[in-house]
# Entry
Amino acid sequence: MLHAVSKRDRLLIVGAGPVGLGMADALRKRGLAYDHVDANDAVGGNWLRGIYKGVHIVSSKRSTAFADYPMPDHYPDFPSQEQMRLYLEIFARDRGIMSGIEFGRTVVRAQPLADESWRVRFDDGEEREYKGVVVCNGHHWDKRYPEYPGSFTGTLIHSKDYEDSKQLCGKRVLVIGGGNSGCDLACDAARVGTSCDLSLRSGYWFLPKTAFGKPLTDIPIWGLPVFMQRLFLRALVWAVIGDYRRYGLQRPTHKLFARHPAYGTDLLNYLRQGRIKPRPDIERFAGKKVHFTDGTVAEYDMIVAATGFHNCFPFLPKGLVPVENEVVHVYAGAFPDAVKNLYVVGWAQPRNGFGSLLTPATRLYAEMIALQDEMELPIGYILKWRGFKAPSTNLVNPTAARRMMWFAHRVLPLLRRRSRILAEKEIREPFDPSLYTFESEAPKPTVAVT
# Structure
């Protein structure tokens, strides 16, 4: 018989990247007890491992830093991976978070119980029972690969597996995808590879990293209505970059911010120098040859798939937190409607740096988590009943997010009242954990709580 250690007086935070650290700081300040685990051996999340050498953030240090903990003055406008890792480590130490983190602990299962507390299993077989789980496992780890007919017999890697330019030396390289990683890797291949081609399925918005002597994310436009932000940035692109078709690229057919834009113009410079060749979408693979939709064919030694990541929570029951087109169906950014005491934080991407939004958001979430203790129904359920909509995109509009947080702080007392009214009407069935199963259900051992 396995024994689950009872820790029902506290929450469990999963992940010690920027979001996990921000939540730990907010819960600590709010006086809420928690345990904190991370699968790595240090803080930093994606900035600790999984980032290629030489990478720098694309948003400025000012917009990326925690709002109440600025980055050092000697940091450049766009800090490196190592500077980001060190910043997060110092933040964790200064805020008294570091000593409470259990490193090298991987959560393999988080199972809701009938009373909506949570049983958590770790990779070493240990089980604990918690009041709730705060999921901060990030969204840059479950690699998404492109799917095309045929097979490629050269080397195919995901951008997550790229470490440094030595992997590209002397190779004919095809990069698939035009996000920030795709642009960086294509530029590296242009410098050290025999050749570099870039395949894009459709047009992208490429924005300059700086404007008027400042990082673009520091220019005071991000509080304006979205249509005004678009007008300003389209004018800036026209003045600084011009028509993308002059670089051999497709013109974007989607509105700016409908997808994540790419920051920086290094790629455009290499295109004009002829060191990167633009290609359309891929039709099929045939050995080392790649057939494109315009009828052209080229041969490559290596393909780098800079095709993004899936939002994924493998330790949660299937269907408990629906994910559709990488959009997580939670309310107010973190609260599922199906179950209490589960909080999914940090699954979306702010359009500029995370810090200016993360700090106020985690404070709000700490208040809402404290309020959940006084409520019978899940906060997400109440918000859904009140007509709040689940998100339709994984990109966060800073203006709308700040407006939502301002509004939420003022209606928190009403949530308690709404919960009481709905509970009295008994319109929600008691939670049934048997409705939610895991991908591979193994025989469950008998567990005794001690």
